[in-house]
Amino acid sequence: DVIMVGEIRDKETAHIAMEAAMTGHLVLSTIHTNDASSVISRLVDMGLPPFMIANTLKAILSQRLSRRLCPECKQPHSPTPEEIQAFQANGVPIPAGASIHGPPKEGGCGRCQGLGFMGRAGLHELLLMTDTLRSFCLKEVAADMVRREAVKEGMRLITQDGLEKVLQGITTVREVLGGTE
Predict the structure, then answer these.
(1) In a domain, 119, yes or no
(2) pTM of the model
(3) 3-state secondary structure of 150
(4) Are 73 and 116 in contact, with CB atoms under 8 Å apart?
(5) How much is the average pLDDT of 54-65?
(6) In a domain, 19, yes or no
(7) Of 5, 127, 149, 151, which one has the greatest count of Cβ atoms within 10 A?
(8) Mean pLDDT throughout 91-106?
(9) Domain for residue 14, yes or no?
(10) What distances in angstroms separate CA 135 from CA 139, 152, 163, one per listed residue?
(11) Considering the domain boundaries, does residue 151 fall inside one?
């Protein structure tokens, strides 16, 4: 009932995946795009008929990896004006008096081998296909219009997810903006 396709890189693979989905299978795969809303136009560019995409696509999860702050040596600080601007520009409220974290000024600790970072954290956006987005697919609407509609319908953008992780002390504004813009 579930088919996993390693990666959709070409028309043939995309067509096989869509045909499997049209026969009732749940197909999970990866495809390289900058964000979730670009997947539809990428599939159209590969030569898939829009009706096939509209009838089979259920959801699109976009992911970027951001370096994770070392839990042992991360340092709290008041957000700079530039960091506050990043939150405001992306519609993420920052509580008054909130502090955010960054790596230590003088290198890290033994646990992170002096880097100030350890591992990676996923930044995500999930686009759920709705009737409106299916109609956009059939009309071959541009990715930015798909994105606007998905946000209007409640999709949280990958940058917003990243900035929320900044407020949780997981990563930094620089990491989020460097990996998502």
Answers:
(1) yes
(2) 0.89
(3) helix
(4) yes
(5) 95
(6) no
(7) 127
(8) 91
(9) no
(10) 6, 15, 31
(11) yes
